[in-house]
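User: Could you go from structure to sequence for me? I need the amino acid at each position, not a summary. Structure tokens:
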């Protein structure tokens, strides 16, 4: 175990390879359980971070689409579609992310609202305090807000 901890600090890729081999062969005594648990936890957090990032990006482009109709681009439309699809795939692969998606929706909207105001130069007050898009809209890769 001491060797595994040392390897974790000096050669992460080799640590991963040896950890996988130990798991597959049942050599539990060789595992660096502390770092293994941390890495698994980090994997879960990374998926949540990616979900939030994709949600914020969809919201940003939906806000720009709705509140800057004169500047609409195919790039915004493609981004809305791409990030909506990413959200759907993440939730399909890990259905337990759906409640997390719902729980961070309002916070991510506020982040998107602030970023969009800074990016467009529009006043923050242009964008409603409460998200004008439904959760189902965000998960619909074909959705574009009406004027």
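Assistant: Here is the amino acid at each position, in order:
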């Amino acid at each position: 175990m001491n060797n595994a901890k040392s390897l974790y600090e000096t050669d992460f890729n080799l640590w991963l390879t040896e950890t996988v081999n130990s798991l597959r062969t049942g050599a539990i005594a060789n595992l660096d359980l502390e770092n293994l648990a941390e890495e698994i936890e980090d994997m879960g957090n990374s998926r949540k971070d990616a979900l939030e990032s994709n949600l914020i990006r969809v919201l940003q482009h939906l806000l720009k689409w709705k509140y800057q109709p004169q500047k609409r681009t195919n790039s915004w439309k493609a981004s809305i579609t791409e990030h909506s699809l990413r959200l759907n795939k993440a939730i399909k692969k890990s259905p337990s992310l759906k409640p997390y998606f719902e729980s961070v929706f309002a916070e991510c909207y506020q982040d998107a609202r602030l970023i969009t105001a800074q990016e467009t130069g529009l006043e923050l007050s242009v964008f409603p305090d409460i998200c004008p898009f439904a959760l189902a809209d965000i998960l619909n890769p074909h959705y574009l807000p009406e004027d």
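One structural detail worth keeping in mind: The mean pLDDT is 94.
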